[in-house]
Amino acid sequence: MIAIALGTLLGLGGVLIVVSLVFPHTTILPKRTTQGRLARELRTRLSLSGLGMVPVPAIIAACVLLAGVAGGVVQAVFEIVVLSLLAALGGALTPLLIVTWRARATRRAHRMLWPDVVDHLVSSIRAGTALPEAVAQLADAGPDALRASFRGFARDYRTSASFGGALDRLKNDLGDPVADRIIETLKMARDVGGTELPGVLRSLSAAIREDSGVRSEVDARQSWVRNAAKLGVAAPWLILFLLASRPEAAAAYNSPIGITVIVAGAVISVVAYRFMLALGRLPEERRWFR
């Protein structure tokens, strides 16, 4: 019981340090700080992963809980303090990694749907439908995965009668760089008028299709790089856990040299894993006018 309590306390301490760095008190800071961008990015990823209604404090609470459980279990089984701290850190990062993975998967799936959205807008505009109504029609005629967001736009527009405000809320709900390009194009067309919007949207649709095809091809070719990176990172730690189950190994890893070896291995694993992912992943588009 003492070992479990110690591991839990160590895990909670590590999580509180991480939380204090990532989510500091920002009432006296300017709006566009690094911490503010991190908070907005987390909210965007929650929305993309289907957890838009989950508050950020709930995610932090889940991180703290998993950190305590992971740290306590590892400390009780292996009785290696530094390994317990790393397990607590891994447990704390698990909810964030899951949210990020789901958000990226959703963004990849949506990337193939945006050309259809643009094509529908072009058809509606050419048929004489007002621009706000053309966007609202996507709640029923758009791709199934995006209809909920466009239903929210339709409600916002009917309630506020503000096309720009409803589009801004739609952009925050979608949290997608491609959606930002489409929405900003619609806002500009609404503000300045003109008859060139269908041609601009058709060009945008062609560019999105071409970009999606290139990204899909490169992503498929580079999947082996990501899989190799995951296997290369996991293998040494599985061996470490097997070795740590022996009492003499636990005593060695609790020594200063053993702690140094584990910490150095963790740092090298993270750096190498991030480097391999950078080699096997295309750069993500940046959000527009956030």
Task: Supply database-style keywords.
mainly alpha; 290 residues; 14 helices; single chain; 80% helix
Characterise the protein shown here:
The chain is mainly alpha-helical. It contains 14 helices and no strands. Helix 9 (163-174) runs antiparallel to helix 10 (177-192). The chain is elongated, with a radius of gyration of 24 Å. The N and C termini lie far apart (49 Å). Residues 21-34 have low confidence and may be disordered.
Order of helices and strands: HHHHHHHHHHHHHH
> What is the arithmetic mean of pLDDT?
80
Spatial shape: elongated
Fraction in beta strands:
under 5%
Helix content: over 70%
Distance between the termini: 49 Å
**Rg result:** 24 Å
Question: How would you summarize the topology of this molecule?
Answer:
Layout: H1 2-22, H2 34-48, H3 56-78, H4 81-111, H5 114-126, H6 131-136, H7 138-141, H8 147-160, H9 163-174, H10 177-192, H11 197-221, H12 223-244, H13 247-253, H14 256-279
Helix pairs in contact: 1-3, 1-4, 2-4, 3-4, 5-11, 8-9, 9-10, 10-11, 12-14
Short description:
The protein has helices spanning 2-22, 34-48, 56-78, 81-111, 114-126, 131-136, 138-141, 147-160, 163-174, 177-192, 197-221, 223-244, 247-253, 256-279. With 290 residues, it is mainly α.
